[in-house]
Amino acid sequence: MRHPNLWWYPPQPPTIFTQPPSSPDVFFCRPLFLWMPLKMWLIPLACVQPACNNHRLTAAGLYRTVRKVLDIDGWYDMATEYLECKGCKKKYPAWSEEIWTWGTADHSLQF
């Protein structure tokens, strides 16, 4: 089983500045969690629409909304992939509840 890197960390600002930074943004960079279950597990995911006859979901790019998540020790951003059914043309963000219900408990626990 392939385990891609799901966490991405921005470059950290230097601890000592020789000149003021051009923007305060360098102090507010957060880690990014990239949730991509189709690419992570490489198993077929089926459309949940009853009339769709379990067409296979395919990757359809990145979902445009990035969530800001509060963790125990700070904030992080979370992005996900779009999954599309070629049969009914419906798209699902990979973090949607419909997608969570497809898998086994083992896969659900990884999230």
UniProtKB/TrEMBL annotation:
Domain of life: Eukaryota
Domain DUF6729, chain residue ranges per copy: 5-111
Name the UniProt record assigns to this protein: DUF6729 domain-containing protein
